[in-house]
Amino acid sequence: MARDLILEIGVEEIPSVYMNKAIADLKTIAIQKLSDARLSYKGIESFGSPRRLTLLVEQLEEQQPDAVIANRGPKKSIAFDPEGKPSKAGLGFARSQKVDFKDLEVREVGGIEYIFVIKKEQGNASTAILPGIMQDIIHGLSFPKSMRWGYYHTRFARPIRWLLALFGNDKVALQIENIASGCYTYGHRFLSRGPLEVKNPRDYFRVLKENYVILNQEERKELIRQQVADAAANAGGRPMEDDDLLEEVNYLLEYPTAFYGSFSSSYLEVPPEVLTTTMIEHQRYFPVFDSSGKLMPGFIGVRNGTDHSLDVVRAGNERVLKARLEDALFFWKEDIRKPLEDMVQGLGDVLFHERLGSIMDKVERLKNLALYIGQVCGLSDEKTLKRAAHLCKADLLSNMVYEFPELQGIMGRYYALNQGESPEVSEAICEHYLPRFAGDRLPASGSGKVLSLAEKIDNLVGFFAIGIKPSGSQDPYALRRQAMGMVNMILDSGLNLNLASLAGTAYDNYAAVKADSSREDTVAEVVEFIVQRMRGVLLERGFSYDLIDAALAVPSYDITEVYGRITALQELRQSDIFEDYMVVYNRCHNLSKKWEDDTVNADILVDESEINLHRSFSLIKYDVYRSINRRDYLAACKMLADLRPQVDEFFNAVMVMVEDEELKAARLGLLKSIANLCNFIADFSAIVA
Amino acid sequence: MNFQEIILRLQNYWSKQGCIIQQPYDVEKGAGTMNPATFLRSLGPEPWQVSYVEPSRRPTDGRYGENPNRLQHYYQYQVILKPSPDNVIDLYLDSLRDLGIEPDKHDIRLVEDNWESPTLGAWGLGWEIWLDGMEITQFTYFQQCGGFDCYPVCAEITYGLERIAMYIQNRESVFDIEWVDGINYADVHHQAEVDYSRYNFELADVSSLTTMFNLCEQEALNIANRHLPQPAYDYVLKCSHLFNLLDARGTISVTERTGYIARVRNLARLVAGEYLEQRKNLGYPLLKDEELRKSLLSEEEVR
Fold it and tell me: Rounded mean pLDDT of chain A?
């Protein structure tokens, strides 16, 4: 027989960011604990809203099956003394297991005999063991930050205020601190009063529904999505799509009602990013766009409740937003009155890092680096780069960025355009922070790319030089993300930058700083760090690890060049010459791998097959070099793969390891020189065929 | 409901819930949390229920009386319930009802807000409480204070009085709040806001303030070492306020800032330790549960 089980942990409002993981953990832990207890069931689900975490187990067995448990003791040779009598260790084991020594069995595990105690464990009624299991589940939950309350020692995301636990129609008795479980739940905080009796697990869902709680988080989310879309459509627009916002709103309420509120269109004078940031970050509203994609003077809020007195709620929210937008408009007007140049002057007083100087120092370094990178990559021009670097940090001293730090760069672009800077300069100011997070867009303009690379290498080298390097989960300055950004930018634009020279130039810019790490060490570490990120980026792009390792085994400071070799390897692997190429390489490499010398004394070759192979190889050798220099790697590989008949013939005809040392040396030298040439673009021994 | 009535109603409400109604503390401070009735009393095992209005100063928030929402001097209404009662949120919501704010006619949310005060070595978890999108209250379960674990944990409820008044009176500027019939907030505070903004941002003498900070720090240390926690704490508060003034003058670099904060935190810790010691020596007089009191005292002797 089986019954449904419901467990509801009633809490004060849990932070929305904890909820997804908490709901998933609840299910995972329950599955684990039920399996440990040998209890089977038909289905298991978990749900959550700000005030509750709920576990539903469908058709849970009423009886735990019996089990045979075999506990292993010491080896037989230890459990018995030389006369075959129980040893101290053997008797000790029996005592610890509370059985007579004579009841122990000998069993073989992996060819060794051990003594075992075999116990029959009688299955319990589920009702007897469920309290313990459910208590374990609750204590098994963990949160990014947990707290204590009152006189209690239990830690949870927020205080636990009630517990409901029903197995079919029966209560399951458990206790967390002063809270004893029962058959009562609570509905919506404001739309329902007092404890609500629940008869059984089915009844639970009905009671919640009648008391304004939409428990199923997916159902609630869909409802919000639909309501928000409808409210926007009624106002003649569409809501901004923002999954993070939707997720957060979903876990801030139990019964959603979306409404449209408006603000004066005079605030649209402020850049749209400022308005959307205010709406989303501060108020959790959905911004609304019209059919042409322009921000409308309105927002969608989602209330936790019904449409009762919705006008009061709307008016209150409109007033709050108005006050915030008024602030934003004030900041905007103040900021655009001030030339960016004035803000630049103040950057000397803003610290970049206590050991790495001010932001002004950084701006000077960025100018040098941008000019260097622009020149090497043939991007942008001196005048634009100098100007963009000069202005790129100015907005840090604007009122708006002080208020909304996430708008750095974006505001700089507006201020630059507003004072008549060129579009390239303005765009570069905005783009030099890109990518801001994993998956963010990369700079599109040439100047933006250059300045972004300059910003990132300056950060990497500066922090590495004073010993601040990412380790484990510690990466306070997001150096990994920045290095990955560099890799993506360089590869996508096919830039040929020597990373060692770049890092060296960045290091020299820090001449005024007392570094912990020498130029040589810093450059080597930063290059290695970037190359490691490249590995990650390429794996993410679907290249297999052996190709990446093979190509990286031929070192290069130019990751675009490395990338070219990896794509060639990928093509080679998929082409019909791959097999021939690998045969040529493997046969030559296997025999000659311990041989260092690749010179060949052709005069002493005797067999026709080896003379033939040597001649064929000599004929293509220089063409292969030329192809490699042209970076036409596939053509080079083709020529080498075409040697297969001659290679096969050679191995059929001659013994390499002959007693004549000179002849052996000539033959090994020939194989070595072929293998070496094969390895010109990658270490093929790393490739898994 | 005028500003004064709001305060009176809150006092009346919390008085009925068994709180002592204390009066504001007579030293400048940034928030009601810094009043010794919160900072010191939240430490140690003794229960404590208190509520009071707290005039609070944040020199950097001054706007010369021109911003409708920002002030360098404003009022908080502070409640401390130690240990935090099980129905603490219901108690709070009833206080709103008492102010005429019916939760089911509005949208009231509890939005995660973790509070941390680096200068006090204190932190807690809780929420901002939103009324139709506006933050009107901060609610915190103290976890640590002065670097010591809080046990039992207290609940701190801090009402933003001006915001609540603006909402109830439907005013768009804090200066338009009606204090009593015929007198508004501007009449009481506007000129002082202008003057303090000027003083805080332009005129406060940096070298005098720095000297005063050093003197107050020394005094706090000396008194704490003589085991007088509250007199010592007065000087910690003075240090904190002097630091805020220096900060408003814009003369503290990021590095120096960290240094000043660490200095105040060290003082706060020292005083918190002295206070705990003192209460133990007094035998935890507010602990009415005789058994608990004895067990705590003997437990600590063993340690």
Answer: 94
Q: Alpha-carbon distance B235 to B239, whole Å?
A: 6
What is the Cα–Cα distance from B101 to B96, expressed in whole angstroms? 5
Strand boundaries in B48-195, DSSP class E? 48-57, 73-82, 108-117, 122-131, 134-145, 148-149, 155-160, 178-180, 183-184
The count of other CB atoms within 10 Å of the CB of residue B201 is 18
Q: Which amino acid is at A565?
A: R
Q: How many residues does chain A have?
A: 689
How confident is the model at residue B303, as a pLDDT?
46
- Can you give the pLDDT at residue B254? 62
Instruction: Round to whole Å and give the CA distance between A420 and A334.
Output: 17
Tokens of A47: 């749900």
CB contact under 8 A, B104 and A190: yes
B139 in reach of chain A (CB within 8 A)? no
What CA–CA distance (Å, rounded) separates B296 from B290?
Answer: 10
Nearest-angstrom CA–CA distance, A302 and A288: 14
ipTM of predicted complex: 0.94
What is the tens place of the pLDDT at every residue in B128-150? 999 999 999 999 999 999 999 99
Residue B101 near chain A (CB below 8 Å): no
Residue of B nearest to A309 (CA): B105
- Is the model's pLDDT at B8 over the cut of 90? yes
pLDDT digits (tens, 9 = 90+) for A243-265: 999 999 999 999 999 999 999 99
- Does A305 contact chain B (CB < 8 Å)? yes
**Structure confidence by residue, pLDDT tens digits, B273-297:** 999 999 999 999 999 988 888 888 8
Give the pLDDT score at A178: 94
Cβ distance A145 to B152 less than 8 Å, yes or no, reads no
DSSP, collapsed to helix, strand or coil, labels residue B195 as: helix
Q: How far apart are CA A584 and CA A643, in angstroms?
A: 7
* A125 DSSP 8-state letter: B
- Separation of alpha carbons A160 and A128, rounded Å: 24
Q: Is B50 exposed, middle or buried (0-12, 13-18, 19+ CB in 10 A)?
A: buried
CA distance B84 to B150: 11
Residue A220's pLDDT is what?
98
pLDDT band at A689 (very low <50, low <70, confident <90, very high): low
In SS3 terms, A141-153 reads as CCCCCCECCCCCC
pLDDT for residue B152: 95
Over the stretch A654-676, which tens digit does the pLDDT of each residue have? 888 888 999 999 999 999 999 99
Query: Which domains, and CATH codes, for chain A?
Result: 2-64+125-210 (3.30.70.260), 67-121 (no CATH), 217-336 (no CATH), 354-542 (1.10.3210), 571-686 (1.10.730)
Tens of pLDDT, residue by residue over A194-244, are: 899 999 999 999 999 999 999 999 999 999 999 999 999 999 999 999 999
Residues in chain B: 303
- Separation CA B6–CA B16 (nearest Å): 15
Q: How many CA atoms lie within 13 A of B21 on its CB side?
A: 13
Alpha-carbon distance of A481 to A537, in angstroms, equals: 11
Per residue in B198-224, pLDDT tens?
A: 999 999 999 999 999 999 999 999 999
Q: Which two tokens stand for residue A526?
A: 């930063």
Cα dist from A400 to A266, A273, A387, A576, A590, whole Å: 18, 11, 22, 60, 66
Identify the residue among A14, A143, A189 best suited for mutation to test binding to B, counting B beta carbons within 10 A and taking the highest. Answer: A189
B53 phi and psi, to 5 degrees? -85, 140
Q: Which of A148, A190, A304 sits opposite B153 (nearest CB)?
A: A148
Cβ atoms of A676 and A638 within 8 Å: the answer is: no
